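It is worth pausing here to work through a concrete case rather than discussing structure prediction in the abstract. The textbook approach is simple: state the sequence, then state the predicted structure, then interpret. We follow exactly that order.
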Amino acid sequence: MTSNSDESQRKPIRITSLSKQASDLSTLCDIPIALIIFSPGEISPTIWPNEDAAKVIVTRYLSNTETEKFKKSIKLETYLSSKLEEKENNIRKPEKRNKEKKIEITFNRLYEGKVNIFDLDATEISELLNLSALAQDKLEERKKQLEQPSHTSQPPSLLSHFE
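Step two, the predicted structure:
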């Protein structure tokens, strides 16, 4: 249980910490910030950075239309959804690489005769077929590249300038 004196001693530390965070946020986001803190049992609020600056910030905010007030704001749900999607993508990338490696290992073991095709389940066979299709596409692409005539640049003939 905390006594009132303990609470009164911690209050200035919390306000100082909150003021520092507000200052950092204001600097990083290039936005005006004012703190008006009403504490129980006190007549006047604690104001940061000072009363005049806070009045200007609050007046400017209240003079804006609703559209202007929310123009730059991002809904928390939208922000969190984008962060969640980003994290899920970061998880999917290694999972995809692991899956591809597993298929490759299965293919190599099958090629080396260490695994019988009849020991594979439907998912593994389907993945091997997809791997085979990708390999076939790469071979076809390479074949097209090799069939195209190479364009080696030859120096212009000296006779062509005199004709």
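Step three, interpretation. The chain has a mean pLDDT of 82. The helical segments are 4-29, 51-63, 66-70, 76-111, 122-147.
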